[in-house]
Specification:
single chain, 385 residues, Rossmann fold, alpha/beta
């Protein structure tokens, strides 16, 4: 769910003529964003247009299990790997980054479809970046004084505004939220183009531990001892307990919207089922512990090579007296926040590692191995342009 890269008009994009019996749709969690350390090594042309499809992503693993020609599956313009990093539900229909609508990869010959979609409708990655806080701790005598300061990342849209917008899409009105209705429309459009397909909709893996501590660090710790002239002081970056709880609630609401949309379309006779990835990944979420964050199936905050929190320590002003009185303790030059934001690798931060893609692939494969329990009919809708 990376920061939106923007959408290009579908009219300017080339058409796709898919011959693949399996089509993989979705956003960065489906494309494999973050799996390639070097962006140039993503599958062409996604290595240049920003869609960032990885040969290690779960759709490729599923294609291998289905005994498909992987080279053909990955081929742009005729293969079935259409997922694109940053794709919103509207982008799936209209296209983005000068690529056509992902749904144009579907045809009457399509037998299987996987889809992970919805996170970019909420701008979830932007939420996670805008809400970053810093927390300083210092030992005084036998006690530790700690204070969390927000607003280190300054953008035109604040953390609170991002969260409000996301929650507004997930607020149910007359039985369904705007997001559920949007997802249901996308699912219906899939069956208009691939009426015989078996569709597996994957929800999102658990991002953070369901039981967060007072502060959830998402990057390494920097020492403040030399700044404060004390024996033990440190700086961390992450989220408060209440923020992580709100992120978890937001993800739960999104996954509920996905589940509701799947149920609604299935009830109309379509062969669509939910793959509950979230329930499989609860214990492998980010644990909010610097010592064990690396063991999570999800990447934490990633910086560009050579950059760390030490930049803040070196370039910002820290006030020990204010920290001890539990007040805002750090002030930075006007350009430092922009530099800090520039060095955050948003396309890798908070994205699934390879082990998570393995889990998603295994779960989708298990569903496709089951005997379909519904028959497919065509909904009385008109394909979107």
């Amino acid at each position: 769910m990376p920061m939106s890269l923007g959408s290009a008009s579908a009219a300017r994009a080339p058409s796709v003529s898919s011959v693949s019996s399996y089509v993989a749709l979705g956003d960065s969690y489906a494309s494999g964003e973050g799996l390639q350390a070097n962006p140039s090594t993503y599958i062409s042309p996604s290595n240049h247009d920003g869609c960032h499809r990885s040969a290690r992503a779960y759709p490729v693993l599923v294609a291998a299990n289905l005994h498909l020609d992987i080279g053909q599956f990955e081929t742009y313009g005729s293969g079935g790997f259409a997922a694109c990093s940053g794709a919103t539900s509207k982008d799936l229909l209209a296209g983005e980054n000068r690529e056509p609508s992902q749904l144009s990869a579907l045809s009457s010959q399509t037998r299987w479809v996987t889809l992970t979609e919805g996170g970019d409708d909420l701008h979830f990655s932007s939420v996670l970046i805008a809400c970053l806080d810093v927390r300083a701790s210092v030992r005084v005598g036998g006690a530790i004084k700690s204070y969390t300061q927000s607003g280190i990342v300054r953008e035109n849209t604040t953390c609170g505004n991002y969260l409000a917008r996301a929650n507004s899409l997930l607020q149910a009105t007359q039985g369904a939220s705007k997001e559920e209705i949007e997802l249901e429309h996308v699912y219906a459009q899939i069956f208009l183009r691939a009426p015989k397909a078996e569709v597996a909709v994957l929800n999102y893996p658990q991002l953070f531990t369901p039981s967060p501590p007072t502060f959830c660090p998402v990057a390494g710790i920097a020492s403040l001892s030399s700044v404060f002239k004390v024996h033990s002081a440190q700086l961390g970056i992450g989220y408060s307990q209440s923020q992580v709880s709100e992120f978890n609630q937001l993800e739960n609401k999104l996954n509920s919207a996905i589940s509701g949309a799947v149920s609604d379309v299935s009830a109309q006779g379509h062969n669509i089922r939910l793959v509950d990835v979230n329930s499989l990944t609860t214990t492998s979420a980010i644990p909010c512990d610097v010592a064990t964050n690396g063991q999570s199936d999800i990447n934490t905050l990633r910086f560009s090579v050579g950059f760390s929190l030490r930049s803040l320590v070196d370039n910002c002003r820290f006030d020990l007296a204010r920290l001890l009185s539990l007040r805002s303790f750090v002030s930075c030059p006007s350009n430092e926040a922009a530099v800090f934001l520039q060095h955050i690798v948003a396309t890798q931060s908070f994205h699934p590692k390879q082990v998570a893609h393995d889990t998603m692939a295994n779960a989708a494969e298990a569903l496709f191995d089951q005997t379909p329990t519904t028959t497919t009919t065509t909904l009385p809708l008109t394909p979107s342009n």
